Each structure stands twice: as structure tokens, then as C-alpha cells.
Amino acid sequence: MMREVEPIRYNYKNETAWYENTDKVMDWFRDQDLDFVSMYFGEPDGTGHRYGPDSPERREMVKQVDRTVGYIRNSTENHGLTKQLNIIITADHGMTSIYRSAQLEEITLSKIPGFNFQDVSFHLLDYGPSGMLLPKPGKLETVYNALKGAHPHLHVYKKEEMPEHLHFSNNDRIPPIILWTDPGYVLNGYFPVQFNKGEHGFDNKEMDMKPFFRAVGPAFHKNLEVGPFETVNIYPLMCHILGIQPELNDGHLSATQHMLVTSADGEFSCLCFIIQLYRLLFTSGGLQYSNYTVLVTFLMGFKLV
Ligand SMILES: [Zn+2]
């Protein structure tokens, strides 16, 4: 097993480091006989937060990511791994622009009549669109009633009432009251403390929240475009390619199996290489993946222009 973790003050934008890390991973595959490597890129997430997903800065960062994907493909080739390595490129969320104007009626809990931080023993707020509250004993209804309907773009739910599609009810660690905002709005506690121009964490039905998914390699059909599926289904897909038994999970191989080529003996290649490109957005249609449009095997939820 190989492991490498970024130091605390790490420059996530350094393109040269991305290339070096790619070569290092390819060396591992070739020389260490590894079966699976997961790689993480902290962009264009950081740039999207700071400048907004529709900004020129974010577009430039997506170009940098695109160059790196090209580099990964070339490095695979140069290491003689093209025939063995399955590459999955995906993200764990999307991003949308935050409204910023003097006229905007911001959502700040301390300003909501009837809501009092004294009634709450623990809160998670000021992290963008969502928040959680643990009311003090006997104060659940007071807190809930004060917040429910208090702002047209604020959603307030008791844990057990949460909409099914959010899958956020059945864990002991989830506090009793959950809050989230409509796209474009963020949730503030006492007063606004963060001023990002891009955020994620909104309702997963929103198109801007959808990540993309692409894969290439001997296990996958070529030039195949498939419909959307939930990201939880990637885990059983990877296990299947690697020939290992998945642990108990919420995904199903049936959601992705149609992407796979079945070889004569029913065996799949056992190398899998995951690149997680945080929040790679296609919302403005700017990404070309110029080096390998032909090799892209499928995508999910996004129109490529
Ligand atoms: Zn983020």
C-alpha cells in the first residue's frame, strides 16, 4: 500500500505538482503492482468558491484541469498502462453562484423574530447553504416554529420529516433540526461571516449540484453516453472492476453495469484509477476535453457544448 497526504498549507493550484503527482501514481502502478489508486485535485473547487462558477478565473482553472486530464492520458500511455488501467474521473458535487447585492434579503438567524440562540445548545451554521441545530431540552417546537416560514428561501425541517431524496434522517449524529437555503442564498448565524461567490450543498435536485462522470479503459464501452445515476453507485462499480466483494452500501451495480464490456471469460481488468476533480462545472459549456473527446465513454447530467 502507498499513501501520500498533502501538508496543511498546500497549494492546490500548482499545475506542475499535479503533473508530478500523476507521474508518481503511474510509477506506482507500473512498479509496485497496485490495483487501485485514488487521487484528489482541490480545483476548480477553490477558485469556484472564491470567484464564482461563472467567473473568468474559474474558466481558466477548468482549462488547467483539462490540460491535466490530457496529461494523465499521455502519462498512462507513456507508462504502457493503457490496456490495463481503467480511469474514472468524477466530482463529489457541483457549484452555483451566490447572489450578492445590497437589496438582497439575507438569511440571518439572529434577525428572525422568535428565534433565540439561547434556545439552542449546539449549532452548525455559516458553512454556506445548510445548517443544523440542536435545541435545548423542551425547546424543539419553539425553535422550529420560529424558523419555519421565516424566510421565503429558507427550508426548515425536523430530522424525521426530511424529504426522502436527501437521505438525511436515519443517523443518530444528525441533529433534530435541519436547515437549507434555495440556490443563490447562504445561511448566516449571528451575522454574515463568509462571502464566497460560489457554493455547494444545495438540494441535490438542482442541476448546478450535479457532478459529472466519465470513464475510460478496458472495462468500459467506448463512446457510450448514458443517463444520470447517483454517485453512490460508483462504489459497487469499482468493486466489480477490481473483483472484490463490496461492503454493505447504498449503491447497486445494476445502475452502471451497462457501461461495462464483458470479456470472454467474464473477468474485468483489475486496475482502477480515480481522479476526483472537485466541482468541475460544465454550466457554461466551456470545457472541451480537447485531447480526448473520442475516448470519453460517458457522462452524467451535463450537456457538453
Ligand atoms: Zn467547497
UniProtKB/TrEMBL annotation:
| Pfam families, per database record | Phosphodiest
Task: Fetch the SUPFAM superfamilies from UniProt.
Answer: Alkaline phosphatase-like (SSF53649)
Q: Write the protein's name.
A: Ectonucleotide pyrophosphatase/phosphodiesterase member 7
Q: Which organism is it from?
A: Xenoophorus captivus
Q: What is the lineage of its organism?
A: Eukaryota, Metazoa, Chordata, Craniata, Vertebrata
